[in-house]
């Protein structure tokens, strides 16, 4: 079968043509809820014209299978658009590489070797992909001591035993901190959420930016598990001039959303009185008013690199582990004001 010149279209290209995010394209093409009929029709028309639906017709059936486990925090932590984009990218790239792919959302606290054995008996996978999940010791030992192979996506293995791909959280957060500092802000607030290796790197990167500005200072608060008590108390202190921070780095966009709501309720203007920058560039960042300035993570590229790692690991099971970091870029918005 002769392939159309357009038949290599992927969701990232469709997203660019439609002027939407990859996660919006993924949801539209999978008939997920939350997409207007007009938008869905527009995206499907662009995909059809680009040869997206027909690009694999006539191709041989996949001979290798991937199984992906995705963190259940996407259902409750405001990160659904992020992981939808990653999963959409994995599906696209797996199909293009000749893999079949199954996806399971799991409670990572109960994910162990027993689950791996059961799932492998039901459906044999050549490579197992963990998305947003840090492997517990017993799970790591299962893969290290067996014949199955594991790849971490949006995760790190500090002992360098597994293939990994993640955003460059350290330098992305350093860029975020510098954006505030170069705008003249010297009293900063850092808002962090749950702690894992990826977010630890964001914290380290942010504080690395402060090292270049000896007159800068920072206060840190946590908003883990959706609890805003510390955030609301800190905003109240700011309204009473008990603290003087003028710039805030939020470790993810959901934290920035919660902060901006609290600031508006307290009568503190963004960016007139408080400047804010987030991380991830999730779709709702563009819906916030004013538009959130944030660090954009390219979820599709991260997924693309994960499938390349899966191809390599499948072909060379004993190859040295590779750990990749994808560039993070500044998405300009309207939430940082120059004060000096």
From TrEMBL:
The keyword Transmembrane belongs to this UniProt entry's keyword annotation: no
HTH lacI-type domain residues: 9-52
Domain of life: Bacteria
GO terms, molecular function: DNA-binding transcription factor activity; transcription cis-regulatory region binding
Keyword Disulfide bond in annotation: no
Keywords for the protein's UniProt record, in alphabetical order: DNA-binding, Transcription, Transcription regulation
CDD domains (UniProt xref): HTH_LacI (cd01392), PBP1_LacI_sugar_binding-like (cd06267)
PROSITE patterns in the cross-refs: HTH_LACI_2
InterPro entries per UniProt: HTH_LacI, LacI/GalR-like_sensor, Lambda_DNA-bd_dom_sf, Peripla_BP_I
Pfam family, one: LacI
PANTHER family in the cross-refs: HTH-TYPE TRANSCRIPTIONAL REGULATOR GALS, LACI-RELATED TRANSCRIPTIONAL REPRESSOR
Annotated protein name in UniProt: LacI family DNA-binding transcriptional regulator
